């Protein structure tokens, strides 16, 4: 079963929730992990089971990075706000570097997240989107 991490800056949380709703059928077959607030919102608004790490500002992104190092993740969706990210939000730089070192794909936009999820669906033989 693929394991995917979900992270979103504050302004991107509605986008990641919409993505989770659209891909709910597929994501229900995945092992999901997320930073604290993002995971809480996704679980509450979709009913998906999400393992929650700490919130990003207090190390949740670092915990997810450790999972990359331990080869426990198949991909990361990190929807970031490239223009107005706040100082308390997780920084993508270290996480992106560790993903590059360990060849783990990271999607940073809605479109790239769809490609990542569609690719994992193809590998597992699952249907990607609930509406299809």
From TrEMBL:
On whether Nucleotide-binding is a keyword of this UniProt record, the answer is: no
* Coiled-coil intervals: none
Asked whether the keyword Lyase is assigned, the reply is yes
Q: Which reaction does it catalyse?
A: dihydroxyacetone phosphate = methylglyoxal + phosphate
**Keyword terms, alphabetized:** Lyase, Pyrimidine biosynthesis
Provide the active-site residues from the annotation. Answer: 61
Gene3D superfamilies noted in UniProt: Methylglyoxal synthase-like domain
GO molecular function (one): methylglyoxal synthase activity
Sequence positions that bind substrate: 9, 13, 35-38, 55-56, 88
Look up the EC number in the record and give it: 4.2.3.3
- What region holds the MGS-like domain? 1-132
Which top-rank group of organisms is this from? Archaea
An annotated GO cellular component of this protein is:
cytosol
Instruction: Give GO terms for biological process.
Output: methylglyoxal biosynthetic process; pyrimidine nucleotide biosynthetic process
State the function annotated in the UniProt record. Catalyzes the formation of methylglyoxal from dihydroxyacetone phosphate.
The entry sums up its family as follows: Belongs to the methylglyoxal synthase family.
Instruction: Name the HAMAP family on file.
Output: Methylglyoxal_synth
Protein name (Swiss-Prot/TrEMBL) = Methylglyoxal synthase
- Species name: Halorussus limi
* Biological classification of the source: Archaea, Methanobacteriati, Methanobacteriota, Stenosarchaea group, Halobacteria
């Amino acid at each position: 079963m693929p394991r995917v991490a979900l992270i979103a800056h504050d302004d991107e949380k509605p986008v990641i929730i919409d993505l989770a709703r659209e891909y709910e059928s597929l994501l229900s077959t995945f092992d999901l992990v997320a930073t604290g607030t993002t995971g809480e919102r996704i679980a509450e608004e979709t009913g998906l089971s999400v393992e929650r790490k700490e919130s990003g500002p207090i190390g949740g992104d670092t915990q997810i990075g450790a999972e990359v190092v331990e080869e426990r993740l198949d991909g990361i969706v990190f929807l970031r706000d490239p223009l107005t990210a706040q100082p308390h939000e997780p920084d993508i730089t270290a996480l992106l570097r560790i993903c590059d070192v360990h060849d783990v794909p990271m999607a940073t936009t809605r479109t790239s997240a769809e490609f990542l999820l569609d690719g994992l669906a193809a590998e597992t033989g699952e249907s990607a989107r609930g509406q299809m």
